[in-house]
Amino acid sequence: MRVIAGKYKKRQLKVPKSQLTRPTTDKNKENLFNMIGPYFQGGTVLDLFGGSGGLGIEAISRGCDTLYSVDHQYEAFKTIKENFSLLKLENCFPLKMDYKKALKYLYEKGIKFDYVFLDPPYGKGLVDDILQYLVDHQMLNPQACIVVEELKEVEFKEIEGIELNKRKKYGITTLNIFYYED
């Protein structure tokens, strides 16, 4: 796995030595960033199910300022920290905690996001509650972009302020691009 574009282009990233994590492929990552970017003028990123930290690192490489990468699995958290260190990233914060605790922690810190990457365990129905929490707790900046990777058959409930903008199917998964309208 590697960084596709930007400041850290072609740099290799480590992947967790665990079957509990499935990194987004380079091809899907490239397609994703072509859909939402491809480059950014700053912004704060939340990668809530970080895995290797690859999606958040890609956003940093393409111009975002700050990254919070969350994973509760030890191997994933360790890999995120190693990747941050390998690239000598600044303003990138690995958090080893469950996603609910992370959302509460980030809310209490008053952090608002411009980009949110959600690649949760497939088919567990976690996305709707996460999106609702982000809206209810005003954790999204105006025009925030939320990217959800989920099984293609999963439908999301309508949440006031969150608008589905694009859907792109890749095999068994779909990339869903939402925008927040304040």
Automatic annotation (TrEMBL):
Q: Which domain of life is it from?
A: Bacteria
Q: Which SUPFAM superfamilies match?
A: S-adenosyl-L-methionine-dependent methyltransferases
The cross-references to InterPro entries, in alphabetical order and at most eight, read: DNA_methylase_N6_adenine_CS, RNA_MeTrfase_RsmD, SAM-dependent_MTases_sf
One MF annotation (Gene Ontology) recorded for this entry: nucleic acid binding
- Annotated source species: Faecalibacillus intestinalis
Where are the coiled-coil regions?
A: none
Query: What's the protein here called?
Result: Methyltransferase
Query: Which NCBIfam families does the entry link to?
Result: 16S rRNA (guanine(966)-N(2))-methyltransferase RsmD
Per the UniProt entry, what are the Gene Ontology biological process annotations, in alphabetical order? rRNA methylation
- Keywords, A to Z? Methyltransferase, Transferase
